[in-house]
Specification:
The protein has about 525 residues and is an alpha/beta fold. It is about 40% helix and about 15% strand.
């Protein structure tokens, strides 16, 4: 394969301007990630310590293999959205347990009792989706008070999906292991109840559909929680529990033993031991993205710092040059890459659709590097059929059945989001850089369109527009769109799986590729009608 060169001058004023802007965003990211690691107030943590309980992240650390990576999922969902704070009351991600890739989730029992608010539920649903698509065994470290009752209207109906997903994964031979450390009440009792393996900690785990107060109200029966749903009872009488652990350490040890005895995965591809590093430092990715989202930059500069040996077999390099397509390897895994180098024209749309078909023909996972303002507009392009050509690309993205991983490395505006495998198109993973912007269109364009509509409406009524009021409205609209289109707002809504440091992109992609190759990849290479 050809080796990419680089024209990046790390000593230039532009590079330093970009690096400074990205450094400020990375500082903001670090601040928010620190907030997301909150595990409850001092009083609640002290109480847990007095009961010889570990905190949620400590449980995860003990469960994972020493030095295992941990790809955390949606750590900032719910950021500044009210509720229970960034990340909710669930820590979730993928790591190695006895050498096996597993999805791990842990209720933060020391924060709101581990109760489930709306954003925590959205994270849990996404975690289940990732586990199912990639055939990952799931280990749930359970300590939750159940649904946050004031939000029951937003939680109750969707909450049942969790239980359905557990049993559907079991049907597919993808096991779930529940380790119960504390309360698991009401609907939360079905998390362990639906699991393939259940471990309960003696004198700590409490699993029941209704606790003693509700039982008293419903049946007038008086019973203590240990008799009603304690670990001893469930291990010796009800049979709900499969293993009775003396303490949390033994419970985690048993969970690891279970994973060690699971059938091995049907891995699609195992990379070679020797992996060539990129010829250019991934650290330079902090200075490559433009500080001004309107200013494009060459996607090949990014690719050169992500792929093995900076080797890239570019497909149709002389055609449709606003979309870069080609084959490469990342951490030894073969991939196809689509990367924006400007607005999508008919040629680049057709090229992208063609390339996606080739990837499907070869069962090759696809990486989308998204920095797109949309499809080209105007009379000339409409008459040339930009709609039908853009539709071909969206058709190919929609029906592609090889794993897709999307990284938002800049703008994501309009239908360009769809044509480059945005969230609605179910990529296996979607991460963003801190400079990411997402909206129907840019703030200036949206405010301008709204102003034109307003002017036309006033003119039709025979009136004249108040210029000062129009100016204030334009500024207000721009501010609103800007506030709702940045990376931190987007990740707070759950539109991605997390915001990452650009310098870590190669490693994140390598780990994601290991996950998607955990199961066989067999594309059906079928599509809807391509409009010609």
């Amino acid at each position: 394969m050809a080796i990419l060169s680089s024209r990046m001058n790390t000593g230039s004023a532009a590079y330093h301007e970009n690096h400074t802007a990205m450094s400020e965003l990375l500082a903001k990211l670090d601040k928010h990630l620190t907030e997301s690691r909150f595990q409850g107030g001092d009083k609640h943590i002290a109480k847990a310590r007095s009961q010889d309980k570990l905190l949620a992240r400590e449980r995860i650390d003990l469960l994972l293999d020493p030095d295992s990576p941990f790809l955390e999922i949606m750590p900032l969902i719910g950021l500044k959205q009210g509720g229970f704070g960034a990340g909710g009351t669930l820590v979730a991600g993928i790591g190695l347990v006895c050498g096996r890739l597993c999805m791990v989730s842990a209720n933060v029992g020391t924060n709101k009792g581990g109760a489930i608010d709306f954003f925590t539920l959205q994270k849990a649903l996404r975690v289940g989706q990732i586990a199912q698509e990639n055939q990952l065994p799931t280990i749930n470290l359970v300590e939750s008070a159940g649904a946050n009752l004031p939000e029951q209207a937003k939680i109750f109906v969707q909450g049942g999906i969790n239980f359905k997903d557990i049993t559907q994964r079991s049907k597919q031979g993808i096991p779930s292991i529940a380790v119960v450390f504390g309360n698991s009440t009401a609907g939360g009792a079905y998390i362990p109840g639906m699991s393939d393996y259940i471990i309960m900690v003696k004198e700590r785990a409490k699993v029941f559909l209704a606790g003693p107060p509700l039982v008293k109200m419903a049946t007038n029966e008086i019973v203590d929680d240990e008799t009603l749903g304690g670990a001893d009872m469930h291990s010796k009488i009800s049979g709900v529990s499969d293993y009775l652990a003396a303490d949390e350490y033994e419970a985690i040890k048993i969970a690891r033993e279970i994973v060690a005895h699971l059938k091995p995965p049907a891995t699609h591809y195992t990379p070679p031991r020797h992996i060539a590093q990129p010829l250019f430092s991934p650290d330079e990715l902090a200075g490559i993205p433009s500080a001004n989202p309107k200013k494009p930059y060459d996607a090949r500069e990014v690719i050169a710092r992500l792929v093995d040996g900076s080797e890239f077999a570019e497909f149709k390099p002389e055609y449709g040059n606003t979309l870069v397509t080609g084959f490469a390897h990342i951490h030894g895994y073969p991939v196809g890459i689509l990367a924006n180098n400007g607005v999508l024209f008919s040629e680049s749309s057709n090229k992208g659709a063609h390339f996606i078909q080739l990837c499907n023909q070869n069962n090759t996972p696809i990486i989308y590097l998204q920095n797109i303002t949309g499809f080209m507009v105007g009379k000339k392009y409409e008459q040339e059929g930009i709609i039908k050509h853009g539709a071909k690309l969206i058709n190919a993205v929609s029906n592609s059945s090889v794993p897709a991983i999307t990284i938002m490395i800049g703008a994501s505006y309009g239908a360009g989001n769809y044509g480059m495998s945005g969230r609605a198109y179910d990529p296996r993973f979607l991460f963003t850089w801190p400079n990411h912007k997402i909206a129907v269109m840019g703030p200036e364009q949206l405010a301008g369109v709204m102003e034109m509509v307003q002017r036309e409406a006033v003119a039709k009524m025979g009136g004249t527009i108040d210029e000062e009021q129009a100016k204030q409205m334009r500024e207000y609209m721009m501010k609103e769109v800007e506030g709702q289109s940045n990376a931190f707002y987007a990740t707070a809504q759950g539109w991605d799986d997390g915001v990452i440091d650009p310098r870590q992109t190669r490693n994140v992609l390598g780990f994601c590729l290991a996950v998607v190759n955990n199961a066989p990849i067999n594309s059906d290479n079928k599509y809807g009608v391509f409009r010609m």
